[in-house]
């Protein structure tokens, strides 16, 4: 299932941002991959990030992950995400200036309280199917 089938709105923007960061990271750290794609390890991380975004309890009102009170990534994946973002974040400004600025502005928003029940993208999709 592709990213456009599951995610919409702010969640899709978040996924495209992390995908751009992974591309920058993978290009620098895994040079043996095909030039148009990311390596298998990074592809697995993107698939995991896509699933986590789909199941985010905040849904479309999702805060940036470093401001979120609910930590939905497994510890090793959270560390991988942090590693990718620390490396790729400053390098986003040239290839993706609008995306980088929007992400920086989103990080300035205050941390929200607990998420409302059933607000995740996955819950909404299930309600639409029933």
From TrEMBL:
Coiled coil: none annotated. Residues 109-130 are annotated as: Disordered. This is Nitrous oxide-stimulated promoter family protein. It comes from the Bacteria. It comes from Shewanella metallivivens. It holds the Pfam family YgbA_NO. Residues 121-130 have a biased composition (Basic residues).
């Amino acid at each position: 299932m592709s990213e456009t089938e599951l995610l919409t709105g702010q969640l899709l923007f978040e996924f495209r941002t992390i995908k751009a960061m992974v591309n920058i990271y993978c290009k620098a750290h895994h040079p043996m991959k095909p030039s148009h794609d990311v390596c298998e390890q990074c592809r697995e991380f993107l698939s995991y990030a896509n699933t986590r975004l789909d199941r985010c309890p905040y849904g479309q009102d999702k805060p940036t992950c470093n401001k979120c009170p609910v930590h939905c990534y497994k510890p090793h994946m959270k560390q991988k995400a942090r590693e990718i973002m620390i490396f790729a974040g400053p390098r986003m400004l040239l290839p993706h200036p609008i995306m980088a600025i929007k992400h920086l502005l989103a990080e300035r928003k205050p941390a929200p309280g607990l998420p409302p029940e059933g607000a995740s993208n996955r819950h909404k999709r299930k309600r639409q199917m029933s």
